[in-house]
């Protein structure tokens, strides 16, 4: 399959070829033809899948320059991603003016450049600020992209995004890209998109074997048990539900001689990224995080994921454990379960067809694994399961 066959015009095909891009990735194969026809797209795909070119081509090929009018708006969760996306657009060399807007820097250069801009790539807060100051007018936007939409919702940008979307013409084409199409994303698309085409790209990544287990303990035993487990391992990510809990758990682990640090929403983006960089550089080996903080960051080489607290949503559990067993390496995901947690744990067990093993430990002795109980016959469980992963959440809900 070639880019020409997808309907991409010659100048763009040549430009891509010069950059060594000759074969469209799966997300490009599926998104570019309907994107060029003006369809709204709801695309589930991961970073690294080639999604920027997947939404870039329909825009670059069809956008008509009009002096003084912003014709395309791309909303990204972070300044880093905004810069990266703008860089990809610049590489098309299509004579379109691209401007990146994000907070933490002065308004003036952005305001001065806006009247000459065709494509704005930015973070929600600064886009809104510029709109409110009358510097950014969205009345002529033909293309609206939400990039890494799930990350933006996790970061609490939903109100900002809705206000921005509402300020663009209803006739625009909307392209929403997200690593997962959660209930909240579906809700957003129903409200703001016109019969979007749903495109799902299965992860191309080779996953290693993921072992999943759980210990049942009392709330007051959790920290001691976690410390004991962590002493045996190297690169662990510990999930807590609250910001306060991440700081508490990290401090308690340090008292027990474990090199642990927390990462949470109380820290600015720069501090969070520095902490993660130190973790990547092996300056410490246990990162204690909230879901929101972790989902805004790319963290590699995790050998163990611990659920110190269970998440409210089974979906979140899936995200957490997906942080390990990546790029062919094996991984373990261990949950510390208290009596009150069973209500939340049952749907998770259900999702993995009961293949999360119960583990046991002795107060001062060795930690043992109880051999798994024989699996229930498949007929009792309902529905097929993707190997090595959870059943699709939608499938579970329909039962
Ligand atoms: P993205 O998922 O948009 O962040 O893209 C990840 C990287 O893959 C970027 O550096 C792109 O330039 C590159 N890329 C995108 N599409 C292709 C392709 N079809 N062939 C080779 N490289 C690509």
Characteristics of this structure?
single chain; 399 residues; alpha/beta; Rossmann fold; eight-stranded mixed sheet; seven-stranded parallel sheet; 16 helices; 15 strands; 37% helix; 17% strand; disordered C terminus; binds adenosine monophosphate
| Beta strands, count | 15
Structural class by secondary-structure content: alpha/beta
Strand order of the largest sheet: 10-11-9-12-13-8-14-15
What kind of sheet is the major sheet? 8 strands, mixed
Low-pLDDT stretches: 363-388, 392-399
CATH class of the largest domain: Alpha Beta
Q: What is the count of structural domains?
A: 2
CATH superfamily of the largest domain: P-loop containing nucleotide triphosphate hydrolases
- CATH architecture label name of the largest domain: 3-Layer(aba) Sandwich
């Amino acid at each position: 399959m070639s880019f020409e066959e997808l309907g991409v015009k010659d100048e763009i095909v040549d430009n891509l070829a010069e950059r060594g891009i000759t074969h469209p990735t799966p997300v490009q194969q599926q998104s570019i033809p309907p994107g060029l026809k003006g369809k709204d797209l709801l695309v589930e795909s991961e970073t690294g899948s080639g999604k920027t070119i997947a939404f870039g081509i329909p825009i670059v090929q069809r956008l008509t320059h009009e002096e003084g009018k912003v014709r395309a708006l791309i909303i990204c969760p972070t300044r880093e991603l905004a810069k990266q996306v703008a860089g990809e657009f610049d590489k098309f060399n299509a004579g379109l003016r691209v401007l990146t807007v994000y907070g933490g820097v002065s308004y003036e250069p952005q305001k001065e450049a806006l009247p000459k801009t065709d494509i704005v790539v930015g973070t929600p807060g600064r886009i809104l600020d510029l709109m409110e100051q009358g510097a950014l007018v969205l009345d002529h936007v033909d293309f609206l992209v939400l990039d890494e939409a799930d990350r933006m919702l996790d970061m609490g940008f939903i109100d900002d995004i809705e206000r921005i979307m509402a300020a663009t013409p209803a006739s625009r084409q909307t392209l929403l890209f997200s690593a997962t199409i959660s209930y909240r994303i579906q809700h957003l698309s129903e409200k703001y998109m016109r019969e979007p085409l749903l495109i799902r790209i299965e992860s191309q990544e080779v996953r290693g074997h993921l072992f999943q287990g759980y210990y049942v303990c009392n709330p007051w035993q959790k920290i001691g048990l976690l410390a004991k487990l962590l002493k045996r391992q190297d690169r662990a990510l510990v999930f807590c539900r609250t910001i306060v809990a991440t700081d508490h758990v990290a401090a308690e682990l340090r008292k027990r001689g474990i090199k642990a640090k927390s990462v949470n929403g109380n820290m600015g983006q720069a501090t969070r990224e520095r902490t993660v960089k130190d973790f990547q550089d092996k300056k410490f080996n246990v990162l204690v995080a909230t879901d929101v903080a972790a989902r805004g960051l790319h963290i590699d080489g995790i050998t163990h994921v611990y659920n110190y607290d269970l998440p409210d949503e089974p979906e979140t559990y899936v995200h957490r454990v997906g942080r390990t067993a990546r790029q062919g390496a094996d991984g373990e995901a261990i949950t510390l379960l208290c009596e009150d947690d069973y209500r939340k744990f049952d749907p998770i067990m259900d999702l993995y067809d009961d293949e999360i093993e119960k583990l046991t430990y002795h107060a001062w002795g060795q930690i043992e694994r109880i051999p798994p109980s024989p699996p229930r016959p498949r007929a009792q469980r309902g529905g097929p399961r993707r190997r090595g992963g959870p059943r699709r959440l939608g499938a579970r809900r329909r039962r």
